[in-house]
Design a protein that fits this description.
Layout: H1 2-27, H2 33-39, E1 46-47, E2 50-51, E3 55-56, E4 61-69, E5 76-83, E6 86-95, E7 101-107, E8 112-120, E9 123-124, E10 128-132
Parallel strand pairs: 3-10
Antiparallel strand pairs: 1-4, 2-4, 4-7, 5-6, 5-8, 8-9, 8-10
Length: 133
């Protein structure tokens, strides 16, 4: 009987150890890394641009304004003009304000349709066209 008692006790202890290990493993908190990584993913930098008018006279002033996302306040954005097959940065630039917006005055002298875009902070805006008469 002593031997039967020891076998029963060993069986109960073994079952308790297995159940305890499984309970301890299931009680461990799940790693929140996947959830927090998605929540803290850096926002892709983007720029928008809009001209105040679509047609101007040569050297007539107009405005280009827009907004940015994912770009720090104070980052400089510049106007680029397509000349042939290349984009050339013009000496017209402005810093993004704390709300992500910007606005600057531009004068163009090249007659015809001018393709323009804004660039800065690792982002490039869609192309806008201003015709100079």
């Amino acid at each position: 009987m002593n031997r039967a008692y020891r076998l029963a006790a060993a069986g109960v202890l073994s079952a308790a150890l297995v159940a305890g290990t499984a309970a301890a493993a299931s009680a461990a908190p799940a790693a929140p890394a996947a959830h927090s990584a998605a929540a803290k993913a850096p926002q892709k930098a983007t720029l928008t641009a809009k001209a105040s008018t679509g047609t101007v006279k040569a050297w007539q002033e107009f405005r280009i304004s827009g907004t940015s996302t994912g770009i720090k306040a104070g980052t400089k954005v510049t106007v680029q003009q397509k000349q042939g097959a290349k984009w050339v940065s013009l000496p017209a630039g402005v810093n993004v304000n704390k709300t992500g917006g910007y606005s600057l005055r531009v004068k163009l002298g090249i007659k015809g349709a001018n393709q323009l875009r804004m660039a800065g902070g690792g982002a490039i805006s869609p192309v806008i066209t201003v015709t100079v008469r």
